[in-house]
Each structure stands twice: as structure tokens, then as C-alpha cells.
Design goal:
8% strand, mainly alpha
Length: 74
């Protein structure tokens, strides 16, 4: 879906998921998109999401989100 996308497009995807415009995504908000993009089952998607939450605050900020794309697609 986002393979080969520009940073601008990935930023827009983050903004689309960040409906409340807080600059943060809850790990719950990412579960569905991660499962859809990766084909992981729920348990493995949670492992992946929790790995992305580098500061372990229960949220994914834009930096963590951008890091996710480098892990997934580069």
C-alpha cells in the first residue's frame, strides 16, 4: 500500500489515522492498519506495534511512525 511512497504521502497517511489531530496514534488505532498492511495475525501485530513504541508510552508519534515504514519497506 505505502511501499515506494514519498515521505509526504506517509505523513498524510499518519494524519489520516490521527483523526483527533493530537500528533499521536494509540496502539489500538494502528492494529487494523498493521494487520491489513502486513498480513500479521492480531497477536503478532501487537508484538510489532509494541516494538514500534520505542518510548513505551502506549502511543506512536510521527517519528516512531516514520521509523515503522523504514523497518517495513526498506
Amino acid at each position: 500500500m505505502l511501499r515506494g511512497c514519498s515521505q509526504k504521502q506517509i505523513n498524510e497517511f499518519f494524519d489520516d489515522l490521527d483523526a483527533e489531530r493530537h500528533g499521536l496514534l494509540t496502539t489500538d488505532q494502528l492494529l487494523g492498519p498493521i494487520m491489513n498492511l502486513t498480513g500479521l495475525d492480531e497477536a503478532n501485530a501487537w508484538v510489532f506495534i509494541n516494538t514500534l513504541d520505542s518510548n513505551e508510552d502506549g502511543y506512536i508519534d510521527k517519528r516512531e511512525f516514520m521509523d515503522m515504514w523504514s523497518v517495513m519497506f526498506e
